Every structure is written in C-alpha cells, then in structure tokens.
Amino acid sequence: PPEQIPAPMILLGWGTVTGDADYGCYPLFHSSQWVPAGSSRSFYSNPAVDALLELGRMNPNPEVRLATYREAMNLIMQDAPWLFLHAEVQLTAIRNEVEGVVIHPTERVMAHHARFK
Fold first, then answer.
1. Does residue 14 contact residue 38 with C-beta atoms inside 8 Å?
2. What pairs with residue 103 in β-bridges?
3. DSSP three-state, residue 59
4. Cα 42 from Cα 71, distance rounded (Å)
5. CA gap 8, 52 in Å, rounded
6. Is 28 exposed, middle or buried (CB count within 10 Å of its CB: 0-12, 13-18, 19+)?
7. Upstream peptide bond of 60 is cis (omega within 30 degrees of 0)
8. Percent of the residues in the chain that have a pLDDT greater than 70, as a whole number
9. Which has more confidence, 3 or 59?
10. pTM of the model
11. Which residues, listed in sequence order, are joined to residue 98 by a DSSP beta bridge?
C-alpha cells in the first residue's frame, strides 16, 4: 500500500526490450501490478486504464492494439501518476564499408557479425 512506502519518491527507468506496448504499460500502470505483486511503485489506479490494458493485452489485431494502448497512454498522461523526465532517442550510423551490424527496433545495436566489406 502507498502509505507503507518508506520513501516519498522514487526514480525509475524502464525500457521496452520487447518493443511491445504491453511490456511498457501493464507492469507499470495496471493496478494489479502494485509492489510487491508487480513493478508498479507509483500505486497508480484507474479502472478505465486497467480495462484498456487488459483489452490491448488480449487482442491480436495490431490496429486495435495500437488504438487501445494510445487511449490508455492518453489517460495515463492526463492522470500524471509520474513526472516523465526523459525519453531517450538514440542515433546510430554505420559506415558504408561495414556490414553485419543489426540495429534492433528497441535501439539495441548487435555487432557480433560486423565486418568490413
């Protein structure tokens, strides 16, 4: 419960290693995920957001999922359970003489097969 948290605030970083919206939303904003059951240390609770996250998690249609998570994120931003400080964007370039480098959509650079042409 929020009243049992020993610190008045926390600093948290979170990346979406899967590239899926569920990974970035459900563990942090669904009310069933409050610590210690999950990763939500803000103790955020909004039944409308919970319903949208559940719908997005169960629906296989990419267009429906996109709209569902967009609506959930809009509600989350309006409620402001966090102070969103930073969203990192990385720029990576590869010289024409290099091949075998893969830049994953999650911004991970995989260079274990890199070599000069």
1. no
2. 109
3. coil
4. 20
5. 29
6. buried
7. no
8. 97
9. 59
10. 0.71
11. 116
